[in-house]
Write a structure and sequence with these properties.
The chain is about 35% helix and about 20% strand. By secondary structure, the protein is α+β, with helices and mostly antiparallel strands. The termini are far apart.
């Protein structure tokens, strides 16, 4: 095979933490607030203008004039302002295509702070130390960042391997830079490893059909410990989080109506967010390492087609028909959402393709209630959360319930139940505003 035909261009991102001084942090915050204000100004302009005058050129002229008239908007670099404009128009295209809701105003506290650097040549990335690199941020200057991954800079950068841009993002742990990288990779050879089915759960996060499993590396929890909201924190951090939550609740109770939030309360909220952000980063790190190991080991990975939104709905019910076990269901929903099954499946999808494998999905109903040995669906076979005992008199198989579900997932794949929706028919998403055929 020709070596040129065996190469494929791939785009990916890499995120690194910035080391900013207090003055640089204030400057970055000003740029982020200016970008949010630019978005809100564009949305106001869009609503006021007639439909025939809503064009990209007219919007570009409007934001150029706004940057001249308003000093606060001039803090934002011109390229970043153009990126806000393109993102806003792309949001409307996604809305018209039925892929997202209509754009709306961005609030100061409910929206994330970010600034785009659309051109890679403005970054001038350079490695200065084994652990540190330098990047140029427009209107900020040279800033250090943590060097945790080799980037195509210097002699390694060319037309096929280069940094094409970046985005500055702020979370509870501070400012980070997310590089956009284009690289040329060799097409992977077909994976020759075994096939495996995976059952996604709470007590055992990933149970495999071959009898193995992947957990979070912590002591096994009790069956009733499903409402642990902060399982990625150690005992000292959990105690600190509880103390901060109690302190914040006390200070909030002492605040008078319509009184401005004190700096001490803001400080408590910031510390709570930082601890929760640390737990989230540990969760994502575990997911990346685990999915990489699975993608390198198995050629085909089979998972359930889960509808997580429906699975995590509240059991509260209505006044006429109140729900049962509402508190228990609420704790289970929190634990399910913390596992981030959708993110795990997304990582497995692109990592299996990168290693020459494939990911398949099978219908989810009854995979945890059917016996993987005899195939019968007998009521009461799942005696506890972890124990499955088949009630079929001719079978009597017993074992871990999660591994039983993983074996059922693998069996459905082998008998050809791939890409069959759980409802038993093809499901196609309708464009917004279009009525179904039966209602026309």
């Amino acid at each position: 095979m020709n070596s040129e035909l065996a190469l494929v261009k791939r785009q990916f991102g890499h995120r690194a933490r910035l080391a900013l001084s207090p003055a640089e942090i204030r400057a970055m915050d000003d740029q982020a607030h200016a970008a949010r204000t630019m978005w809100n100004c564009l949305h106001s302009w869009w609503q006021m203008m007639p439909k025939e005058k809503r064009s990209l050129a007219a919007a570009d002229t409007a934001i150029r004039q706004a940057r001249k008239d308003i000093d606060f908007l001039a803090v934002l670099p011109a390229q970043a302002a153009q990126a806000v404009l393109k993102t806003y128009f792309q949001a409307w295209k996604n809305c018209w295509g039925g892929h997202a809701d209509a754009p709306n105003f961005k609030g100061r506290f409910r929206s994330g702070m970010s600034v785009d650097i659309p051109q890679g040549r403005d970054l001038q990335v350079k490695r200065v130390h084994r652990r540190w690199g330098m990047v140029n941020i427009p209107k900020i200057g040279r800033v250090r960042f943590r060097w945790t991954k080799d980037l195509p800079v210097g002699r390694q950068a060319n037309g096929d391997n280069r940094i094409t841009g970046a985005r500055l993002v702020k979370d509870s742990l501070g400012w980070h830079i997310a590089f956009r990288i284009t690289t040329l990779d060799r097409t992977p050879e077909p994976h020759t490893g075994p096939e495996v089915g995976i059952d996604l759960g709470v007590n055992i996060p990933l149970a495999l059909s071959d009898g193995n499993h992947h957990d979070h590396g912590r002591p096994p929890r009790l069956p009733d410990d499903t409402a642990d909201r902060d399982k990625w924190l150690n005992p000292d951090e959990k105690a600190k989080l509880l103390r901060l939550e109690q302190c914040a609740a006390h200070r909030k109770a002492l605040r008078k109506p319509k009184e401005k939030t004190s700096r001490r309360l803001h400080r408590a909220y910031d510390q709570i967010r930082a601890l929760r952000a640390k737990a989230t980063r540990r969760s994502i790190d575990w997911q990346h390492k685990t999915t990489t190991t699975l993608a390198q080991q198995y050629s085909v990975i089979v998972v359930e087609e889960l509808h997580i939104t429906n699975m995590t709905k509240s059991a509260k019910g209505t006044i006429e028909n109140p729900g049962t076990n509402v508190k228990q269901k609420s704790g289970l929903n929190r634990s399910s959402l913390q596992e981030a099954w959708g993110r795990t499946v997304t990582m497995l999808t692109y990592k299996t393709a990168r290693n020459g494998g494939a990911l398949a999905k099978v219908p989810a109903p009854y995979t945890s209630q059917r016996c993987s040995a005899c195939g019968f669906l007998t009521p009461g076979s799942r005696e506890t959360q972890a124990l499955f005992v088949c009630k079929n008199p001719d079978c009597g198989w017993s074992g871990n319930a999660d591994h039983n579900g993983a074996r059922n997932v693998m069996h459905l794949y082998r008998i050809g139940h791939v890409a069959i929706p759980a409802a038993g028919r093809a499901v196609v998403r309708r464009t917004r505003g279009v009525k179904p055929a039966t209602a026309r």
